[in-house]
Design a protein that fits this description.
The protein is mainly α. The chain folds into 2 domains: about 5-85, Orthogonal Bundle (Arc Repressor Mutant, subunit A); about 90-245. Helix content is about 65%, strand content about 5%. It contains 11 helices and 3 strands. The chain has helices spanning about 5-15, 20-30, 40-55, 75-85, 90-100, 110-120, 125-155, 160-165, 170-180, 185-205, 220-245, and strands spanning about 20, 55-60, 70-75. The longest helix has 30 residues, at about 125-155. The model has no long low-confidence stretch (mean pLDDT about 90).
């Protein structure tokens, strides 16, 4: 079994049994599926070690069993498992979520950059994760800008300022804000546009100076975790808006 198939089983078991050990997890997986084979223990062990490194799990089960292979869910891990945000600890699922949100319009470079951001986070390289996620946000806003420009040319809206901002990621969000304010967007887009653009602007700003130069920022786990958590939602909103703009014709 590969990690993408095995990981959801492990997470489901941990939700039900927050204090356990490696062999108990393996026994439960064998009970749930006939696809698990003896050599899959190595893949299972890799998944458990990843969750340990990420802080979702910690060694020990109780005061009598403080060492591996006994493990328990941490407070941080319990929060993740409870509200479903453990998806951030599932690289394949995280990328699949972004791909599904932009079916037909998702940018391959964005997907791979978001993957690198997540892998950097999981390795504890938080500044690198911020830089990569900022780059993914720039690609996403660039896609929205191009769709808005095409829409403007087709419907007679001015796009000169937006076109002039395409090479400046820090200016582009502001230009998009002004350009889209002149469109008559359906309520679901208008209600959430500012929150999405502000979120993307923050992500981009974390990896660039005020004059647009790239920088390596200070970052902690909680901050990067929050941005990674929100990014798939930004992608869903932007890709839905792109589909709307591409499908809307001139009056």
């Amino acid at each position: 079994m590969d990690k993408a198939t095995l990981r959801p089983l492990v997470l489901g078991i941990l939700r039900k049994t927050p204090q356990t050990h490696l062999h108990a997890i393996e026994t439960e997986i064998r009970r749930q599926t006939e696809d698990y084979e003896r050599h899959d223990i190595l893949t299972l062990q890799e998944i458990v070690w990843e969750l340990l490194v990420q802080g979702v799990l910690a060694p020990g089960k109780n005061s009598l069993n403080l060492n591996l292979p006994f493990v328990h869910i941490t407070e941080f891990g319990a929060h993740c498992l409870e509200d479903g945000t453990v998806l951030v600890h599932d690289p394949d699922g995280y990328v699949a979520d972004i791909q599904a949100s932009g079916l037909g319009v998702a940018n391959p470079d964005l997907i791979e950059t978001a993957r690198e951001a997540l892998l950097a986070y999981l390795a504890g390289r938080y500044p690198s994760a911020v830089v990569m996620l900022g780059r993914a946000a720039e690609i996403l806003t660039g896609q929205l800008a191009e769709a808005t420009i095409r829409h403007g040319r087709r419907t007679g809206h001015g796009v000169q300022r937006l076109e002039a901002s395409r090479t400046d990621p820090r200016r582009l969000v502001g230009a998009l804000r002004r350009a889209l304010a002149r469109r008559r967007l359906p309520g679901e887009f208008e209600d959430n546009l500012e929150a999405t653009l502000s979120g993307l602007d923050t992500v981009i700003g974390n990896s660039r100076t005020s004059d647009g130069r790239l920088r390596l920022p200070r970052a902690d786990r909680e901050c990067v975790f929050a941005h990674l958590l929100l990014f798939p939602g930004h992608c869903r909103f932007v890709y839905d808006l792109i589909v709307h703009l591409e499908g809307e014709s001139a009056d």
